[in-house]
Amino acid sequence: MPGLWFLRVSLRSVKRRPSYPVLTAQVDKPSAAVGQEPPKTKARGRRGRPQGRKNRNRREVELSPSLRFIQEPIKRVLEQIGEAFQGVYFICDGALGHNEARQMVRQVGLHLIAKLRYHSALSFPYDGPYCGRGPRRQYGQEVDDQPIPSTSLPSTSRDQEIKTRIYQMSLWHKKFAAMLNVVVIVKTHLHTHKTAHVVLFRSDLTWGYALFIAYYRLRVPLACNCRDAKQYWGLEDCMNVNARPVYNGANLARFMVHVSHALRRPMRTQGSAFSVHDLTAWFRGQKYVVETLQLLPEPPDPIFIDQVVSKMAALGRINHAVNSV
């Protein structure tokens, strides 16, 4: 089905928790795919490294066209914010959970927090004896080959029939240039014994698991911004076909997300779950009250108007205020 594909870069406030979309760019799917190499197939023949091939420097990688396309908006956002505040971390999902994306982020001075594939080949650091010649061995046993030691289990919790275990380790990945700080979240159903796990990683080895998970959860409001732009601010109903109207429509929806954040901020004092639907219901009720009062022969008292507006505007809300029950 034909559609539009947008790349959106947002700034996430750690203290206030809202997410602010800063830049929206349309992705041209055919051009983004140009230049990508086809998947390589292993040639049959002698085992081992082909003659003449040297070790690759995993820190100096050649970025693909899609990664270069993602890197340009990040640079523009960092130039726009200037010295107002310093961006430190770039949070994304598993689509950028590889070494090339990490090096792309490090080139602009940020650290990457992302998710690895669930079947990633992670290895413990080698702690065995030195063989006496050559470089010291780095990679030990793979994580799947032996059970994770209990010393790497800092947290265990249970919610009804779901048991959650959180492991934190410093592990090697053969396709990454440096050791990774890895947090593995394992959820087990106690009756069916089915398990599911998520693997998060970061290059900083000093972080604890709680801060690690809290920062990765910051990416959830980024998806909520896209939902609000499509559901409430017209991005889903965009009927433009030319480049400039599409760009203006997408950025107008992004701008309205900012406006809704500013309008909801004072409303959050009545209830922390004040949503965009509550905001539109409040303004709609206020409009109905004002139009109805204009039909009266004499305008009522302003205090009475404020009481009626606050009462009627709360009728269509989903999350009612604490003091309005």
Can you characterise this structure?
It contains eight helices and ten strands. The protein is of the alpha+beta class and 325 residues long. It folds into two domains: 6-34 and 56-127 and 138-226, no CATH class; 268-325, no CATH class. The strands form two sheets. Strands 3, 4, 5, 6, 7, 8, 9 and 10 form an eight-stranded mixed sheet that branches. Helix 3 (99-107) links the parallel strand 3 (89-91) and strand 4 (111-116). Helix 7 crosses helix 8 (302-312). The longest helix has 25 residues, at 243-267.
Outline of this structure?
The chain is α+β, with helices and mostly antiparallel strands and 325 residues long. The chain is 32% helix and 21% strand.
